């Protein structure tokens, strides 16, 4: 599949209207640069509107900085949600951007990045400039510097640790790069810090409205593993890391009614911060553009009323690929509650207990592939076939026959996983949805989906549902969430009747 990324810069008229109305739905989809001040802003910036003749629009923060503009200190472009339309489809730009977010340019060269997406470095650079307005290395550097700016503004981390967290091995190089981009040294930004000293490192993670955070929490709450995760009415918490260096995090709604979540990190080392934030953003689907998704799914007579009822529906991801893979196997042909019970037994018998201060309800890590590759899971009530499948997955991950590398196309991911014994299309697509957060993953064989999508109440065949869902591409995973939710709402309404 060679789908090109969607044009990332809206029309001039749309940009003008969004800027003047400070429409949060367009936050992060474009940036406004002012030629008289040489500053670039988010479309939601509260500063007085500049003269139209002084305005320039850019598709990315990297493009604005490449043109010589510096980030606004008032609206703080580092808080803007990402533009998920860049990641749509299997185009090389989308795949390369996923790799950059995963840190591919932190230690490797542009040639290595280009090779992983199957093009030459010169061609990759040309495609980035064409679609994003800046070359890959500039996109990578801007991302690191904006993250550093957020850490300097919102935390009390020493500047040396901020530099390390942003991926700079040298404080001198960090100071020089930051001063060039922001027209001030890092310490100047700290003269009036808004951060307060606290045991936790607290950051804001922005999103575009509407966002149904309660629905995401509800989905995760029914699947939460005791000891590993803790989900209540207001927040999601879990452990992360390994047995030697572990910590825990908590995500809740940001105070003040902002379009953001609040991330609290405990025990995270500086080098872990950006990967942890990236993973949290992906798991909670904070970079989605609800307008674009609704424009496609809203043409379906089946989905249109569901979109009206739940306009902020997102795609809840999973924290760890292996954890999701094991749970997907356990969930084959059983209820969510039954799969959770079996997964909890695995955690209690094979997960590493942590000897660090943790909130009540958190105590251990989910087992690694190495811990389960030879484990006898039958004693936990898991069937011989599924126990063998889980051991096979663990060994395949250790051998490198399968992985969760973000750059692989959906079709390739599914093909590699279904080659393993005990893994079918449903399981592979479910893993792509939850572990990869792939927006077009679609477990068409799912019984609930085939019933919920049937307009006349007659259960659809897998083939019929697959054909119906062709018009839902590339957002079929969001259709899955709407259909599952609709089925859950219907079941709840039926139970409530006298």
In short:
With 498 residues, this protein is α+β, with helices and mostly antiparallel strands. The chain is 45% helix and 9% strand. It has 23 helices and 9 strands.
Write structural notes for this entry.
With 498 residues, the protein is an alpha+beta fold. Helix content is 45%, strand content 9%. The protein contains 23 helices and nine strands. The strands form two sheets. It has a five-stranded antiparallel beta sheet with strand order 5-9-8-7-6. The radius of gyration is 23 Å and the shape is globular.
Task: Describe this protein with a few key phrases.
single chain; 498 residues; alpha+beta; five-stranded antiparallel sheet; four-stranded mixed sheet; 9 strands; 45% helix; 9% strand; globular
The helix/strand class is alpha+beta
Distance between the termini: 51 Å
Taken from the alpha-carbon principal axes, the silhouette is globular
Number of helices: 23
**Largest sheet at a glance?**
5 strands, antiparallel
Number of strands: 9
Helix content: 40-55%
Assess the beta-strand content as a share of residues.
5-15%
Radius of gyration: 23 Å
Average pLDDT value? 93
* Spans of at least 5 consecutive residues with low confidence: 1-7
Task: Strand order, main sheet: write it out.
Answer: 5-9-8-7-6
Describe how the helices and strands are arranged:
Layout: H1 12-21, E1 31-34, E2 39-41, E3 55-58, H2 61-66, E4 70-71, H3 92-101, H4 104-107, H5 110-116, H6 121-132, H7 136-154, H8 159-165, H9 171-182, H10 186-189, E5 201-206, H11 213-221, E6 229-231, E7 235-241, E8 246-253, E9 260-266, H12 270-283, H13 290-297, H14 304-309, H15 321-330, H16 336-350, H17 369-372, H18 384-399, H19 410-418, H20 425-434, H21 447-452, H22 462-468, H23 476-496
Parallel strand pairs: 2-4
Antiparallel strand pairs: 1-2, 1-3, 5-9, 6-7, 7-8, 8-9
Helix pairs in contact: 8-12, 15-16, 15-18, 15-20, 19-20
